[in-house]
Each structure stands twice: as C-alpha cells, then as structure tokens.
C-alpha cells in the first residue's frame, strides 16, 4: 500500500474481526482505540488517501464537497459584509518574512523554504507562506492612502504550509492545509472590534448550524493569543473521546502592531496622519476533522445533512422472483422526485454488490439517510427510510416523500447537534481548587475554573501538568460568564479570580 505513515494496526486497542469477504467494517472501535479508529474512518470513508510525504494527505471528492458546502455559506456571508476575495502569491521573500521578526520568531522552525531550481541553488531562498501577513501588508501600505481607502477588507481561499513535527493527523494537523484568511484594515478600533465578533459568529454558525458541533465563543489568554496581535477570539470545540479541546477557528484584532511594522498609514478626515486598525481571521480544513471525530461511530463517518454531498442514497432490494425492473424504476423515480425538491439524492444501482454490502458501504461514508425499495414497498407504493445517526427505520408513502424526507433530514441535523452537545456538556467539570483540577484533568474533563488571568500562573499550570499526555492550558475565557461570587479565588494561584476560564489538554 502506498503512503509513508499509514498507521499500523496493533498496540493499544483490540483488533476486531473485519468481515473478510467484503473488506467492509472497521478494525478498531471509537472507544477502544480512538487514534486508529480515526485513521481508518477517514480512509475507508473515502475522505483521505495517505500520501508518501509525512503530514500530507490527498483530500478526495468526498472531503472536498464538505469543504465546498461550508465555503458556499461563508463566502456569501463575508460578501454581504463587503469583503472582497483576492489571491496573493504562495512565495514570500526572506526580507519581508523577517520584517516582523518578533511574531515570526516562535514560528520560524515551521517555515518551509525553496532553495533550488533544478540542480542550481537559488541565489536567495524563498519561503512558502505559513500565513499571509507578510505577503499582503506591504501592499496594504501602498494601497491605503486616505480615509476613503478604508475599510480595506480582503479574503483569500488558499493553501498554506507549516512544517509541523509533532504527530501529524489528517485534517487536524497536516503540513499543508486549505483555509480562508481574511485581512481587514479600518480607520477606528471600534469598527475592528465589531468585525472580530461578526466573523466569530459566522464561525460559530459553521460549527453549530452546518457541522452540528457545539462550540464556545471566547477570548484567548495572553499566552495563547496570536503574539502579533492585540487580542484573539476563538470558537472552541471538544472531543469527548480524547478529552481534548480543539480550537475551531480564530478571529484576531491585530490592533496597530502590523500597521507600525509595515507603515500602513492614512490621512484621516482632519488631515492628520493616522495608523490603521487591523483584524485577521481564519478557519481551515481542520473543521472536517473535528466533524469526523465528534460524529463518527463504529460503522464509519456520520455526515450532518447540511454539509453532506449526498443526503439520501436509494438502494434497490430485489428478490429473485420480484419485479426487478419495477424496483429499479421506482428507485430512479424516487431520486428524480428528491432531486427536483433540492435534496441531494442518488441511487446505487450497481449489480455486482448485494444490498447488504451497499448498506455498509454507505454507512461507512456517512450518508445521512438511506432509502430501501423492495417488492413489498413497490406493492404498497412506499419506501423504507433508515437514518444513519440512530438507525431508526420509517416507512414513507411515496405521496409524501419530499415532505417527510426533508423533515427527517432536519431531525437528523438537530439530533446530531443535540447528542454532541449532551456529550460535551457531560464532560464539563466546574472546579475551584488545584486538587479538583488535577483530578478532573485525569478524567479527561473540559474544566471550567475561576482564574486570576495572569500569564505567569498559566505558565505555572503548564509546568505543573507537563507529562506524556501533554500539558494543560487555557482554552478560552467564554464570553458567557457564569456568576463569579465576590471573594472567589483562582484555582491555581489562590489570588482573587477575575474570570471563569476553560482549561484542558488540547490538539
Ligand atoms: C507558522 C509559521 C509562521 C501561525 C505560523 O490566525 C508564522 C505563523 O504567524 C503564524 N503559524 N501563525 C499565526 C497566524 C495568525 C493569523 N494569520 C491570518 C491567523 C488568522 C489568519
């Protein structure tokens, strides 16, 4: 098999018997060996193919279609906000990259460089963008002259490269990934502040309305924020199986730091020279990995209807002496009716696979609803619908097909969110003391603790929890704050607490 780092089976959890004849089924369960389960699900679900460069993955049409469905929503929403799309080059000259040394410092080991063309060394090596601040901002400086040039709101859909060294995982941590990066400049801080939250709300909607994943909106700590910016907001998700938080997307207010570095100045209405206020914001193909981790089960992927390329798969169930042609025609007619109503449906009419094999195959791929049509259904002018999320079976009269399928898809979407939220909420542990914190961390909890909000204290928490599993860190200070009674102490320092903050291990 191709693929340099295809995860090997063995170690950790028990290997389950794979159905030999068909090759269907997974060798690991989600609860027994989450890591192996995940690797297998993304490959067998046809989202990913492993590649012969570590940390790089082929995104197959099944994954890209999900990406495109999110992109269609987000792109339309930012256009309503007057953001324009653009495209800047992949390559960065070393001079510009160094310009913002301070912020790049910690990231430098992850920057990949082109040093040769053919056999000859380049005179000056060229970096591949890990993010595009240094690529774009010299031109912001050129394009922004007066207050009439503001706001400048640009976005690009592109790939970026970060040469990560720790444990690559498809979608979650890969060396090349797809994202959108928005970079905006305003005359006032107020406008920038407003946009940060507007974008964050779109990210919440991508997760909650499209991917059916509950997220928490909040602010990053000083230690965890983007060092080049003023403050960072994020949506944070949680993976119950591993007990890890995961940053879903970020929306930064950069303040005037980059404006200073890149001299992005303008003449304001009073004719004075002023500096712009900037934001940047991004979400990436990591979203797809979070979706797989949260909703997937021991039968494979589970796709929320709103992002699934295929919402309904129609499967004929002929018997030897049945009217096979009649069944096939009913399948085709069902697909046509659903398609006309704007539902993404297809029939699996392959004659070299049994209905049972097809059921497993489409379950592995996570299609939200399966429709089976057999002789009895044909006779009764009905179809049988089977939900991927809970296996529930319903007989639907063909007269009310569209109406009922729409309703079921809505119910599936809602149920996926409700179940995910219930599981996430069950993991939340409110702690007040260090002892409670350590216990909760050992139980893979999502910890909510009163905190003094001091950088040194967070460093101390990291140091005191360092170990094989990785240190605990702050995930975010949620905007929605529970009441903090007067006199509440910080769980880690004993100083007066300022905020409730989420803590845990994270991706
Ligand atoms: C890796 C190498 C070099 C993250 C890096 O979040 C530089 C960087 O600047 C780097 N990894 N970052 C921070 C990216 C900040 C910011 N960029 C625009 C975003 C949103 C989109």
Summarize the entry for a quick read.
The chain is α+β, with helices and mostly antiparallel strands and 507 residues long. It has helices at residues 34-44, 61-80, 94-99, 101-104, 133-143, 189-210, 257-262, 286-295, 324-340, 355-364, 375-380, 401-427, 434-442, 455-464, and strands at residues 48-50, 57-59, 84-85, 91-92, 113-117, 120-128, 152-161, 176-186, 216-219, 231-239, 244-255, 265-267, 273-275, 277-284, 312-316, 345-347, 369-373, 382-387, 393-397, 428-430, 446-451, 473-478, 499-506. It has three domains: 34-295, 2-Layer Sandwich (BirA Bifunctional Protein, domain 2), CATH 3.30.930.10; 312-423, Rossmann fold; 431-505, 2-Layer Sandwich (Translation Initiation Factor IF3).
Question: Would you kindly provide a written description of the structure presented here, covering whatever features stand out?
Answer:
This protein has 507 residues and is of the alpha+beta class. Helices cover 33% and strands 26% of the residues. It has 14 helices and 23 strands. It has helices spanning 34-44, 61-80, 94-99, 101-104, 133-143, 189-210, 257-262, 286-295, 324-340, 355-364, 375-380, 401-427, 434-442, 455-464, and strands at 48-50, 57-59, 84-85, 91-92, 113-117, 120-128, 152-161, 176-186, 216-219, 231-239, 244-255, 265-267, 273-275, 277-284, 312-316, 345-347, 369-373, 382-387, 393-397, 428-430, 446-451, 473-478, 499-506. The strands form five sheets. It has a five-stranded mixed beta barrel. α2 (61-80) packs antiparallel against α6. The structure holds ligand 87F.
């Amino acid at each position: 098999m191709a693929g340099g780092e295809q995860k090997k089976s063995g170690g950790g959890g028990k290997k389950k018997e794979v159905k030999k004849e068909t090759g269907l089924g997974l060798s690991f369960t989600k609860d027994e060996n989450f890591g192996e389960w995940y690797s297998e699900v993304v490959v067998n679900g046809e989202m990913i193919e492993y590649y012969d460069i570590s940390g790089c993955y082929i995104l197959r049409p099944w994954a890209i279609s999900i990406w495109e469905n999110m992109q269609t929503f987000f792109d339309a929403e930012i256009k309503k906000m007057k953001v324009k799309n653009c495209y800047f080059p992949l390559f960065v000259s070393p001079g510009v990259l160094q310009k913002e040394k301070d912020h790049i410092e910690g990231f430098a080991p992850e920057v990949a460089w082109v040093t040769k063309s053919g056999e000859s060394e380049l005179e000056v090596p060229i970096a591949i963008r890990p993010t595009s601040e240094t690529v774009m901002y010299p031109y912001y400086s050129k394009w922004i002259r007066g207050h009439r040039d503001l706001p400048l709101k640009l976005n690009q859909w592109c790939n970026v490269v970060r040469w990560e060294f720790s444990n690559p995982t498809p979608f979650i941590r890969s060396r090349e990934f797809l994202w959108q990066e928005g970079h905006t400049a305003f005359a006032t801080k107020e406008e920038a502040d407003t946009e940060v939250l507007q974008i964050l709300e779109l990210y919440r909607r991508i997760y909650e309305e499209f991917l059916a994943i509950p997220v928490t909106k909040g602010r990053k700590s000083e230690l965890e924020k983007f060092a080049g910016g003023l403050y960072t907001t994020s949506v944070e998700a949680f993976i119950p199986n591993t007990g890890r938080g995961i940053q879903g997307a970020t929306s930064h207010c950069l303040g005037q730091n980059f404006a200073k570095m890149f001299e992005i100045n303008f003449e304001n209405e009073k004719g004075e020279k002023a500096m712009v206020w900037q934001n940047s914001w991004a979400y990436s193909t990591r979203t797809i990995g979070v979706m797989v981790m949260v909703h997937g089960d021991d039968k494979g992927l589970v796709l929320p209807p709103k992002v699934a390329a295929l919402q309904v798969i129609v499967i004929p169930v002929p018997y030897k002496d049945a009217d096979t042609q009649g069944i096939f025609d009913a399948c085709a007619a069902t697909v046509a009716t659903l398609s006309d109503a704007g539902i993404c449906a297809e029939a699996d009419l392959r004659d070299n696979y049994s209905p049972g094999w097809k059921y497993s195959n489409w379950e592995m791929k996570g299609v939200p609803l399966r429709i089976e049509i057999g002789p009895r259904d044909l006779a009764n002018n009905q179809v049988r619908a089977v939900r991927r999320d809970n296996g529930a079976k319903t007989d639907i009269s063909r007269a009310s097909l569209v109406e009922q399928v729409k309703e079921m898809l809505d119910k599936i979407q809602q149920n996926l969110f409700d179940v995910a939220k219930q599981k996430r909420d069950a993991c939340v542990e409110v702690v007040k003391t260090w002892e409670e914190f350590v216990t909760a961390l050992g139980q893979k909890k999502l910890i909510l603790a009163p905190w003094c909000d001091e950088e040194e204290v967070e460093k101390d928490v990291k140091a005191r929890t360092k170990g094989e599993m990785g240190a605990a860190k702050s995930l975010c200070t949620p905007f929605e704050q529970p009441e903090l009674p007067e006199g509440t102490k910080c769980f880690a320092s004993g100083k007066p607490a300022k905020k409730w903050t989420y803590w845990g291990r994270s991706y």
